[in-house]
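Reviewers asked in the last cycle whether our approach scales beyond single polypeptides. To address this, we selected a multi-component target totalling 780 residues and predicted its structure end to end. The input consisted of the following lines:
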Amino acid sequence: MRVLGIYNIKGGVGKTAAAVNIGHLAAADGLRTLIWDLDPQGAATFYLRVKPKVRGSKRMLLGKRDLSDVLKGTDYPHLDLLPADFSYRNMDLLFGGTKKPTTRLRRLLRPLAAQYDLVVLDCPPSISLVSENIFRAVDALLLPTIPTPLSLRTLEQLLDFMAGHDLGSPVLTFYSMVDRRKQLHQDVVASPVDARCGVLSTTIPYASEVERMGLERRPVTAFAACSMAGRSYQALWTELKSQVAGLQPGAVFDSPY
Amino acid sequence: MNSASPSDSFLLPDDVDVERLIELFGGPGCCCQGHSADFSLCYFDSFDWRLNSAGLRLLQVTSDGSAVLRLQSADGEQVVEPLQSVAEPAWPADLPDSDLRLRVSSLLEMRVLLPLARVQIESIGLALLNEDAKTVVRLQLLSLLCDSPDRESIALGPRLRLIPVRGYTAESQRAADFLANEMVWPKVPPCLFEEALTAVDRAPGDYSSKLKVALRPKQTALEAQREILRALSLTIERNIPGTRADLDSEFLHDLRVAIRRTRSALTQIKLVLPEPVVKEYQQRFARLGQVTGPTRDLDVFLLELPGLRAALPPAMAADLDALEVHVRKAQRSEQRRLKRRLGSPATGAMVQAWRELLDAPRLPGEPGALSSLPVAQLASQQIWRMYKRVRKAGRAIQPDSPAEALHQLRKDCKKLRYLIEFFRDIYPAKPLKRMLRPLKDLLDCLGQFQDRELQAEWLEGLSAELDRSDPQGRRSLMATGALVAHLLRDQHLARERFAERFARFDAADSHVLYRRLFRDRGA
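The resulting structure, written as structure tokens, was:
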């Protein structure tokens, strides 16, 4: 099982859209995939038409309730969701009161290893105890970055934090919400990025299809696979497979027998 | 109320199509069509159903260029992780390294996997939706066509399969209850195995190398002997195509055993069949048996070669490569000869004539003097007679007895075993099993004694043909010499074991059983 965290300190950078589309493409490739919507806003849960409610969420986060009991299948074969719950806003406090508070999430995910090939964490925007838990749980961290100087500065802040806390997970970034009409975006995309971070060559355009996910309540890759945005997510997933080990297409396909 | 589970499959009436299903589930807002897919499915097992005997099903499902091998229990549950494998499985050892290979090869040993039934499946996906238009139950409408080698494809009934969505089991249960209780559609098993086999006129376990004859104690000896011979003739006929095609070594093995048993049934069940029939077919089957000998000897050697290699010093094991190449070549050549002989019009006519004779209402010639005896009486007399013969001959064996005496004893032991197995049905099973164990162990010991001797002799003869002019040839020669020494040592060990094995066969409690079962009933 591989764990991929879609993360950024900033909000509104396209994390949830990336998590949902990547999760959808991974499942379509035959990987048994789980998206965990860690953001109490529950946007990924909404996109996948699931109710943002986890019964006994506190007990679950404390490891007293099996994660398997609260998983939901989605509209897509091989793609499951661990829904968001409003109580996740207190996750920091909850983890803070436990032993080994920074590895709580990693330990919670461990029993799912036999059921899933890939877990995609849709992370809330912040840099907190939950974030540190995420850094310690993932095999790779994927950062959608809007091509602006401020976003690059945030990226550096994160990399400094990770270096300071001895967090060695590989960090990959890709440019998100890229507006080709803006010279600034073009310049930032062309400029070099902090060497501590891998940069994927795929960019995700600022596109109305991505916004339409909220209306359609489906991944772009499901309702507009051939659109510019749909093709971009497909290219991102292809590139990700070449960069992160263990994401090769699964052996299992849906057959009636 | 019919009980239904959330992952049941239901047989559909012929007039139910996708539109009708959508309508039944509440219309387009509640049920929508998903994507369609075509699958091809094939079940595999060995000719003698080794996987089925272990309660397992091996199937390969192919779709759109991908293929997956699944090992399932009889009720369709996954037993090990599925294996991605596009090539049609044949030899278990050639499967990709996996738990599935381990499991299958340990059960199949030297047998090859053969396709049993192929089914073409068209699947149309459907989804039941909740108020958020979210899929809460998946359905598959399946149309199934079973390929038949000698006639048109056979349609299996169309069916609807429920696939619960995680976290929405209650919705699946409601759908299952609706189909079972309101539509009253019959449930079908989750596994297609038996249905697909029935469609191609097969049944699980329809072949076994074990002789199965349902005899009744009061049946006449003649009827019983004909039934035994008929069952054996069927085994012979069923194994000839696989032997000719050299699918695996066990077709020939089973063919040879059936021929030997036929000869034994002809000669050891005395004074029942008309004498001319016995004489004619005893000779014919003896000739057929001889034809099959050389290939089987080479097969046995090749099957045992990995074990023999392991018995040599590691540095020498690789020097047997040249010998193996030589034996494989010889096996291919003998196999070709065997294929010709078994496929000849003369063999075909003989097998057919034999079956026709056994099926005919009356046999040509006068039946033997004991033909009307109840089979239980005749069988008991003849088994008791053969038992006494084996006991006498075995007791006479001394450490310095010639090898020929042990070979003769082996033949008699086989006759005794076959006689007991022919008439197994008319005796109580438990004591028979207790008696057969020491007899089989004794036979194994005598078999090892004789086989090792023959193999050593054969290898000595073969060593003359190995090229001594180059270093490789000389190394092969030395390795062959070491192998001969190992075989003779093995033979010696078998001889040492003989006394103990025979003593178990000849034990007082065993004798009591023989006397009670056979002498007393034969009187």
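The longest helix of chain B spans residues 275-311. We regard this as preliminary and will revisit it once experimental data from Aim 1 are available.
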